[in-house]
Design a protein that fits this description.
This protein has about 260 residues and is mainly beta. It contains one helix and 16 strands. The chain folds into two domains: about 130 residues, Immunoglobulin-like (Sandwich), CATH 2.60.40.10; about 120 residues, Galactose-binding domain-like (Jelly Rolls).
Length: about 260
């Protein structure tokens, strides 16, 4: 236990170092900082969301490292996002969510990393463009005003079930290894005529914890699905909506967000 605690403390310190490096002024001298390209085995790759409000950045490194991304609408950057991996240790497959973005906008970003030996890495300045907003929303998402009344498990308070209904892509609900047995029940607070639902899967950078299909059960009676993850059209009237993982890659399955859209 002492060895694990010491390791966690060491990586927490390294994580703090990479955040400090990421927040540093871009005009600081390059001495002692190594080009991130030297440890980049694959990527960075940008996956844009159709909403235009967030993107997912993935990069694989040749060594275990703690990573962060500075980004912004100008080369001055000004915002920071860190790796979404749940552990405190460094690793090689990195996934960073850049949220709070404007649709149809160009952003600049720079990768930072710190290795176990304390060496700092920083990339050149890259850019990406967000998707134009489609504006196609199937109704009002009443899940954001609902209450989570039951769930299979939570990994920790940082990955609480309530994060599945906060409409914030930067937070997520994770189970503690429930795999295909993961489920979440929300109480809409009243009977609602529903036109569509959504399940947006969380995923680990190694491919685990990815939900492929899900079902919903309304008022402990009628089950719909299985559906592929994302938004799907479905018509029912109900108050209690249970989301079940149907098929997944196993592990700490869960959701970035679940949605329930009211008709009209």
């Amino acid at each position: 236990m002492a060895k694990r605690s010491a390791a966690a403390g060491r990586w927490a310190l390294l994580a703090a170092l990479v955040v400090l490096a990421a927040c540093a002024d871009a005009t600081l001298p390059e001495e002692g900082i190594v080009d991130f390209a030297e440890i980049a085995a694959q990527g960075p790759m940008i996956e844009t969301d159709p909403s235009g409000t967030f993107v997912t950045l993935r990069v694989t490194t040749t060594i275990d490292a703690v990573c962060a991304v500075s980004f912004g609408e100008t080369a001055a950057l000004g915002r920071l996002a860190t790796d979404r991996d749940m552990g405190a240790a460094g690793h090689s497959d990195h996934e960073v969510l850049l949220s709070g973005l404007e649709p149809d906008t160009e952003y600049f970003y720079r990768l930072q990393g710190v290795a176990e030996d304390g060496r700092l890495y920083r990339s050149e300045l890259f850019s990406f463009g967000t998707e134009p907003s489609s504006g196609a929303v199937p109704g009002r998402n009443v899940a954001v005003s609902s209450t989570v009344v039951e769930f299979s498990s939570e990994f920790s308070s940082a990955f609480a079930a309530a994060h599945a209904i906060d409409a914030d892509p930067a937070t997520e609900w994770s189970t503690r290894g429930d795999g295909d047995d993961a489920y979440l029940v929300v109480d809409l607070g009243r009977q609602v005529d529903v036109t569509a639902v959504g399940f947006h899967t969380r995923a680990m950078s190694d491919g685990s914890a990815t939900t492929e299909t899900f079902t919903i059960t309304v008022d402990n009676a009628t089950t719909y699905g299985p559906f592929p993850v994302g938004r799907v059209a479905v018509s029912f009237n109900g108050r209690l909506v249970r989301f079940d993982v149907d098929q997944s890659s196993g592990g700490n399955t869960g959701a970035i967000d679940v949605e329930v859209f009211e008709t009209g």
